[in-house]
Amino acid sequence: MNIKEIKELLELMADHNVSEIEIEKDNMKIKLRKMPNGKIMMEHGQPMTAMMPPIQTVVAAPAQIASVSSAAAAVPSAVEDGVTIVRSPMVGTFYAAPAPDQPAYVSVGKVVKDGDVLCIIEAMKLMNEIKAEGGGTVTEILVQNGQTVEYDQPILKIKKA
Are 37 and 104 part of one and the same domain? Predict the structure, then answer.
């Protein structure tokens, strides 16, 4: 499925007031859901024949969906015994919470499980949820809310359970 096809799906959703659509094509599954705030949440899976990281969730306005191909899952790396560093998968702005008036996804000492949202990295007006790729306890948050992060920059430390 290419960007043009995704844009067409977004336009169809808007034209026909559809709030959710799920399609499987070319060995890829995509789910688009209109959120109460009017933004579109897109979940897309990697090809089902390959062993890939879990689904990456991207929140985007329809006009900005063209940049979604640059979104990637955070790549953790082991540093010390049982501690994983979650790194930024892209250049963007780090957000600890889904909105300024809502609580942070995680804090130091919070226990997370595989698939839990850790933070959001905004890149080119796309809100990319970064998810845990394993369970554990958050031991350190290495960046501040609203801070610009670089590709592969460490953003969190998680001690495996």
Answer: no
Q: Are 28 and 44 in contact (CB under 8 A)?
A: yes
* 26 and 85 inside one domain: no
Whole-prediction pTM:
0.52
Distance of CA 37 to the CA centre of its chain: 18
Coil/strand/helix, residue 128: strand
Segment 52-74, tens digit of pLDDT: 333 344 444 444 433 333 333 34
Q: Say how far apart CA 26 and CA 65 lie, in whole Å.
A: 19
CATH number at residue 122: 2.40.50.100
Do 60 and 106 lie in one domain? The reply is no
- Helix (H) or strand (E) segment spanning residue 5: helix 3-15
Q: Are 136 and 108 in contact (CB under 8 A)?
A: no
